[in-house]
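dumping this here before i forget
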Amino acid sequence: MSVNQARSWEQTRPIETPNKERQVAVKVRKQGWITKGEKIIYSLTATCLIVAGIAMVSFSSSTDTLNREMQSLEQTVQSQQVTNEALLFEVKELSRPERITQIAKENGLKIQDAEVKQANALTN
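structure:
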């Protein structure tokens, strides 16, 4: 290669500029493990489950309160029935004809007819 050829080659050769690689900003979009739509669906589902749980606990609590009140009322009714039975027995004891005639004799009353009638028909 002659000197002239070398010069011409060097002139025709494109000047190499230092290789500056253009740095292209690559936007890396991070994708989560779930999409926005899935997040919305999961959020709605979780909200519904929480609301259903709260409603279930509230309903259970109100049912329990109602059952306790009902048991209390049943106990009250039962004790009142026992009291009524005792009073009914006492009424029967006090309305015996022998007792009435004895009290009448103690107070100086005379029994003209030996028959003492009970007024049971009035109570029914």
